Amino acid sequence: MDYYNHFLKSDLEEITHKQFVDLFMMALKNDSFKIAMQIYLRFLNSFDIDGRIMDILILSLKDSLRFHEMKLFFIHQHFDVMTVAQMNHLVDTYMEILNRKEFKLNPVLSQFNTIKYSLLIYRISWKISQKRIYSLITKCSVLNSYILKGLFSYLDKQQHIS
């Protein structure tokens, strides 16, 4: 059931800022990204985004393909909040999901705009590489090869369809 319309109609006057942050985290955990984005855009500011929220967001990338592109934009917007461990976890997460063989579970292959999606992941990989942490640079180069492999697979399938 989609609670988005119910949320928009709710009286939100008595909710404190801390409760909005907690509600935001609950919405992310439960993959209610439309509600999470409403809370973020209307009631939160960039200082409210911390490591706990980024951890939840990284886990949500792995657990669900819903709103993946928006989650990537969110990661881009708050990249500076991420710790080295979170960057490592993010790269590991993408290496796992981009290596999935099933079409529907691989976001590079199943998202609407695969080129844009791949570029968003590549941009995150590039940002991580710019941190100059050797183990992450190496992992990012492997991640980039997964991105290229997925793109070539997608383009090959498009050629066979034509």
Q: Can you describe what's shown?
A:
With 162 residues, this protein is mostly helical. It has a domain of 79 residues. The chain contains nine helices and no strands. The longest helix has 28 residues. The termini are far apart.
Quick overview of this protein structure:
The chain is mostly helical and 162 residues long.
Lay out the secondary structure:
Blueprint: H1 4-9, H2 17-29, H3 33-43, H4 51-63, H5 68-77, H6 84-98, H7 107-110, H8 114-129, H9 134-161
Helix pairs in contact: 2-3, 4-6, 5-8, 6-9, 8-9
Helix content range: over 70%
Overall pLDDT metric: 83
Class by helix and strand content? mainly alpha
Which geometry do the CA atoms define? globular
- What's the gyration radius in Å? 17 Å
Count of individual helical segments: 9
Core attributes:
single chain; 162 residues; mainly alpha; 9 helices; 72% helix
